[in-house]
C-alpha cells in the first residue's frame, strides 16, 4: 500500500487507508506500507525520476499493489515501468482536479491525473460519485465502490437522548470537524453564522491547524473581524474519546465543504444523531439526504448556511426528527468490516485472474 507520509494523518482519506490496511491484516493478508514524503505538487512530480523511489518499488514482492490516488503525481512513470503481472489498484477518495480552485490550475491537475489513472489496472472508489468522476476522464473502469464505514467513533447515545438534546434550552450547538484547509469551508460557515443572531448559536471547531497554517491564521483573523469570538471555540485536534464527547453534546455537524468525494465526517456525526450541513458538491448526497438527515448547501454560499442553521435553531422539533433520521441512516450504512470485506474480495479476484491469465 503506497501512501504519502504514513497512515497517521487525521483526514478521512487516511482513516480509510488505515482501516483498510488493518482490516486486511486482520484477515490474514500480508500488507507492506510504503511511504513517500508529501511535498509541494511540483516536487512530488520529480519523484517520477527518483532512483530511491524506483528502487523501493522494484524491491516489492507483492500480489497486488495498492496506491492511494493522492500519490498520483509521484507514480506515473513508475507505474508505466511496473511488472504487468501484478495488478495496480488505485484507492480513490476524490480527484484533486475536482476541488474548487482556478480553472487553469484544475486543467493542469486534470491532465496529470488522467495520465496517472491510465496507468492503473483497477480501482477502489469511496462513492459512486468518485467512480463517475474518474470514468468521465478515462472511460469505463474495472473497480469496486466500497463506502467508508461510519463506526470509527462509538456513538454511545440513545434515541431518547437525541430527542431530549434537540429541545435543550439555549443556543444551537454546532460542531465543525475537519482539517483546517480552505476546501473544508470553515470560512463559509463562519460568515453564514455571523449573519444569525449572536445568541442563537455556538460553534466548536475540531481540526488540525497544522495542515495549512496560513489558512488557520486567516480563520483567526476572520473570527475577530466578524466579532464572533465569544461564540466560537477552537478545540484543535481531539482524541477519539474527546471527539465522541463533543459530538454527543452538539446539535448539528456543519462542514460546508467546497467538495467531498464522500464525507466520512457526515456519517460519523449522524451516528450521534447530528443532522449535517453538508457540501452539495461531490458525494455527500450519497450519505446525507437533503431535508431529511441534513441540508446540502452550495459551496461558498454563506446565505445558504445561515438559512440552514436558522431553520434548525428555530424549529427544535424538526431538529429532533432529523436527528433521529440521521441515526437511522447511520445504522443502515455499511460498517468498516463490510468495507474491507468488499475490497479484500475484489483484490483477491484480481490476483487470481492475473495468475491464470495466458
UniProtKB/TrEMBL annotation:
Coiled coil: none annotated. Signal peptide: none annotated. The keyword Transferase applies. One of its GO terms (molecular function) is glycosyltransferase activity. CDD domains: GT4_PimA-like. Transmembrane segments: none annotated. InterPro entries: Glyco_trans_1, Glycosyltransferase_grp1. Pfam families: Glycos_transf_1. Residues 165-327 form the Glycosyl transferase family domain. Keywords: Transferase. This is Glycosyl transferase group 1. It comes from Natrinema altunense (strain JCM 12890 / CGMCC 1.3731 / AJ2).
Amino acid at each position: 500500500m503506497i501512501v504519502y507520509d504514513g497512515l497517521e494523518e487525521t483526514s478521512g482519506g487516511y482513516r480509510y487507508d488505515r482501516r483498510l490496511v488493518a482490516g486486511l491484516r486482520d484477515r490474514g493478508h500480508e500488507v507492506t506500507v510504503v511511504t513517500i514524503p508529501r511535498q509541494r505538487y511540483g516536487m512530488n512530480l520529480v519523484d517520477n525520476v527518483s532512483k530511491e523511489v524506483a528502487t523501493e518499488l522494484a524491491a516489492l514482492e507483492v500480489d497486488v499493489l495498492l496506491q492511494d490516488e493522492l500519490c498520483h503525481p509521484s507514480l506515473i512513470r513508475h507505474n508505466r515501468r511496473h511488472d504487468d503481472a501484478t495488478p495496480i489498484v488505485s484507492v480513490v477518495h476524490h480527484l484533486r482536479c475536482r476541488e474548487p480552485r482556478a480553472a487553469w490550475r484544475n486543467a493542469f491537475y486534470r491532465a496529470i491525473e488522467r495520465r496517472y489513472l491510465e496507468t492503473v489496472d483497477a480501482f477502489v472508489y469511496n462513492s459512486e460519485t468518485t467512480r463517475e468522476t474518474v470514468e468521465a476522464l478515462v472511460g469505463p473502469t474495472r473497480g469496486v465502490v466500497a463506502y467508508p464505514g461510519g463506526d470509527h467513533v462509538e456513538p454511545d447515545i440513545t434515541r431518547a437522548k437525541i430527542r431530549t438534546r434537540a429541545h435543550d434550552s439555549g443556543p444551537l450547538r454546532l460542531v465543525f470537524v475537519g482539517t483546517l484547509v480552505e476546501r473544508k469551508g470553515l470560512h463559509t460557515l463562519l460568515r453564514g453564522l455571523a449573519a444569525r443572531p449572536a445568541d442563537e448559536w455556538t460553534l466548536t471547531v475540531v481540526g488540525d491547524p497544522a495542515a495549512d497554517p496560513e489558512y488557520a491564521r486567516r480563520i483567526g483573523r476572520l473570527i475577530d473581524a466578524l466579532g464572533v469570538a465569544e461564540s466560537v471555540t477552537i478545540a484543535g485536534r481531539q482524541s477519539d474519546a474527546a471527539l465522541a464527547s463533543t459530538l454527543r453534546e452538539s446539535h448539528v455537524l456543519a462542514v460546508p465543504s467546497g467538495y467531498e468525494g464522500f464525507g466520512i465526517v457526515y456519517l460519523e456525526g449522524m451516528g450521534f444523531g447530528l443532522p449535517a450541513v453538508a457540501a452539495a458538491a461531490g458525494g455527500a448526497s450519497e450519505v446525507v439526504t437533503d431535508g431529511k438527515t441534513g441540508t446540502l448547501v452550495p459551496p461558498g454560499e454563506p446565505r445558504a448556511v445561515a438559512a440552514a442553521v436558522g431553520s434548525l435553531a428555530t424549529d427544535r422539533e424538526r431538529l429532533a426528527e432529523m436527528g433521529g433520521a440521521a441515526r437511522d441512516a447511520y445504522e443502515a450504512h455499511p460498517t468498516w468490516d463490510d468495507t474491507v470485506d468488499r475490497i479484500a474480495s475484489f483484490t483477491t479476484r484480481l490476483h487470481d485472474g492475473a495468475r491464470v491469465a495466458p
